[in-house]
Amino acid sequence: MSLPAEVLKKVKLLEINTRKMVNNLFAGEYHTHFKGQGMTFSDFREYVPGDDVRAISWPLTARTGKPYIKTFEEERELTFILVVDVSGSSDFGTGQYFKGEIMTHLAALLAFSAVKNHDQVGLLLFSDQVEHFVPPKKGRGQVHRILRDLFYYRPKSHETKISVALTYLQGLLKKRATVFIFSDFIDEGYDQALRLLGRKHEVVACVVNDKSEADLPNLGVVDLEDAETGEVLTVDTSSEAFRKEYLRELKKRKEIRDKQLRLAQVERIDIVSGEDYVDPLLEFFKRR
After folding, report:
1. Under a CB-based contact definition with an 8 Å cutoff, are residues 221 and 227 in contact?
2. Does residue 107 come out as left (phi exceeding 0), alpha (psi in the -120 to 50 range) or beta?
3. What is the rounded end-to-end Cα distance, in angstroms, of the chain?
4. Which of 238, 256, 276, 287 minimizes the C-alpha distance to 186?
5. What pTM does this model have?
6. Which residues pair with 123 in a beta bridge?
7. Mapped to the 3 state alphabet, what secondary structure does the chain carry?
8. Which domains does the chain show, CATH number per domain?
9. What is the pLDDT along the chain (288 residues), one digit of tens a residue?
10. How many CB atoms are closer than 10 A to CB 98?
């Protein structure tokens, strides 16, 4: 399938900008944080003073009459799954980028970093269903496919059900993987699925919000459309009663979200559109 020229242009621009970030400031943080999943046997060599005696191979030592030790090397290759929310609420933003675009840029940054370190990377797009899945592979061609899908794929649904995506991955992933979930987490009932996924895999919740969501602008009487259900509500944003009720609901929703993420016991990164969205990711790696 040929892609529209505007999509190809976006993909190329994102690739150029992302590769610069990876080369200039991100690759080192990535490699330091993701060091591999363990050690695998490499070879035998003769013992020299100072070697760990626990590494001595006693059967080989007995056969040769000389002490030999086992040597190991890091199992470097990792698998990354980028889980990206494509529900209706991702198509919102008052800054330079919509929330969904922020998610796309961050997913691209991690995808290029993975390829640079010869790791596998895959993609899962979800709404209230699993919309699209790209199995993990290595190589630049894989990143290009992921970028095209992030820009070009049109979801079948606008609603959100995070647990569906997590349950799908839990049944699909056989080897340990690192899973980054990009969403505004406007949903409920996903904490158990998130916790179960986190038992076997390293899971990071990247919570993307827009700054205007917490600071509703005073625009007078406006029609507000629910991005997921399509419901339209006419409200007076200058009304003190409405603003209080809005903030109360926002606080309640945030408390539910924070409680579910806390119960799931996964890593968390908070990102606000309109602000630098790379710094929180870098700070996350530095913390670790």
Report:
1. no
2. alpha
3. 42
4. 256
5. 0.74
6. 82, 134
7. CCCCHHHHHHHHHHHHHHHHHHHHHHHHHHHHHCCCCCEEEEEEEECCCCCCHHHECHHHHHHHCCCEEEEEEECCCCEEEEEEECCHHHCCCCCCCCHHHHHHHHHHHHHHHHHHCCCEEEEEEECCCEEEEEEEECCHHHHHHHHHHHHHCCCCCCCCCHHHHHHHHHHHCCCCCEEEEEECCCCCCCHHHHHHHHHHCEEEEEEEEEHHHHCCCCCCEEEEECCCCCCEEEEECCCHHHHHHHHHHHHHHHHHHHHHHHHHCCEEEEEEECECCCHHHHHHHHHC
8. 5-33+76-287 (3.40.50.410), 39-74 (no CATH)
9. 444 565 455 555 555 555 555 555 555 555 555 555 555 566 788 988 888 888 888 988 998 999 998 886 555 578 899 999 999 888 776 677 888 888 988 888 888 888 877 889 999 999 999 999 999 999 888 988 998 898 888 999 999 999 999 999 999 998 889 999 999 998 989 999 999 999 999 899 999 988 877 777 777 887 777 767 777 888 887 888 888 888 888 888 889 888 888 888 888 999 987 777 788 887 887 776
10. 18
Which tokens hold the place of 12?
Answer: 């190329």
Nearest to 120 by CA among 84, 82, 83, 78: 78
Residue labelled with tokens 């409680």: 259
Residue 186, both tokens: 């406007």
CA distance 275 to 219: 23
Give the Cα separation of 85 and 34 in Å (integer): 24
* Spatial separation of the C-alpha atoms in residues 118 and 78, rounded to whole Å: 8
Rounded CA gap, 153 and 54, in Å? 54
Amino acid letter, 164: V
